[in-house]
Amino acid sequence: MEESVHQELLTDRERDVLSLISQGKSSKEIARCLAISVGGANFHVNNAMKKLGATTRAQAVALAIFHGIISARPNSPSR
Asked: Any transmembrane segments, and where (predicted)?
């Protein structure tokens, strides 16, 4: 898929969770950062993984970086 198609497939929240995963955050830490439940964090992670065709969180992050959806630089905005 084209990068722009990948970008449009993911919601802002899905990009946020992938960015936080890339910083080494756990689901509990992601939930705390985004003021959502752990279940909500996992929901967004799993949706992003499905949309990217990833089988692991690490693969989802790698694909998101590869397609320019999130930045590889720590603490940089994902949008």
From this structure: none
- Domain hosting residue 13, numbered range: 3-66
Q: Looking at the domain assignment, is residue 72 inside a domain?
A: no
Distance CA(57)–CA(42), nearest Å, equals: 10
Which tokens go with 26? Answer: 């756990």
Q: What is the CATH number of the domain that holds 25?
A: 1.10.10.10
Closest CA to 78 of 12, 6, 1: 12
34 vs 7: CA distance, rounded Å: 20
The reply to whether the predicted model has a pTM over 0.90 is: no
CA distances from 19 to 24, 62 (A): 9, 11
> How do residues 26-60 score in pLDDT, each as one tens digit?
999 999 999 999 999 999 999 999 999 999 999 99
Q: 10 Å Cβ neighbour count for 36? A: 17
